[in-house]
Amino acid sequence: MKKKSIAKIWLIGGILILAAGLINYLVNQSRNPEGFVGKAMTKIWSSYFTDQNQWGYSLINIDEVETSLDVGFGGGSGIKYLMKQNPDRTVYGIDISDEAVETAAEINKEYVDSGNVILKVGDVAALPFDNNIFDLVAAGQTQIYWDELEKGLSECRRVLKENGTLLITCEIDKIEYHLPEYKNSDDFVSLLYTIGYSEVSVTISNNYIAFICMK
Predict the structure, then answer these.
(1) Which tens digit of pLDDT belongs to each residue from 186-197?
(2) Is residue 138 situated within a structural domain?
(3) How far apart, in whole angstroms, are the C-alpha atoms of residue 95 and residue 142?
(4) 63 assigned to some structural domain
(5) Given the DSSP bridges, would you call strands 90-95 and 134-140 parallel, antiparallel or unpaired?
C-alpha cells in the first residue's frame, strides 16, 4: 500500500475518533451541562424548547394547576410559560445541573424573587419532596438522559397528587437515538402502566410526542 494511502487512512481514522469524542462530549453536556459550554447550552435551550413546551402544555388544562414540578427544566422556558399564564401559581423546578439552575433563575427572576418559583439542584431518582403534593409534573425532553428511568418515573408518580398528571414531551428522533429500547411508544406506555399510572395517552405532532400520564 502506498504511503499516501496509509496516511489518508490514518487521517480519516483520526477525524472519526475526534468526531466521536465530540459527539460523546456534547451528549454528556446535554445530560448534565457544566462549565462554559454547559452554560451556553442552557442559554440556547431557553429559546429552543419554547415551542415544544407550549405545545405540550396546550394538551392539558393548565388553568387547574396550582402547584407543579418541572423535572430537568434546562433553560427554564417551560417554567416561564406556566408563570406567564398564571403568576400566582407555584412552580418548583429540579435539575441536575448548576448551570441550568442559574440560567432558569435569570429568565424567571421576577418569579424567583416573589417566591413563586423555587429551583433546586437534584436528581429525579431521589426527588426531595413529600408524597402527593403536585398537581402536575412536567418533564420536557429529559427522560432520555435519566440514569434510572424507572426510578425517575416512579418518583414522579410518588410526588403527584391523586389524579395528578405527569406530562412528558420529547422529540421523536431524540428518543430513537438516546432511548432506542423505547422508540416504540407502545413499549414506553407499557412501562408507565407497570409503574402504576392509571391512564396514559399519547399525542404526536410532526417530530413531537407527548405522554400524558394520570396517577
Answers:
(1) 999 999 999 999
(2) yes
(3) 10
(4) yes
(5) unpaired
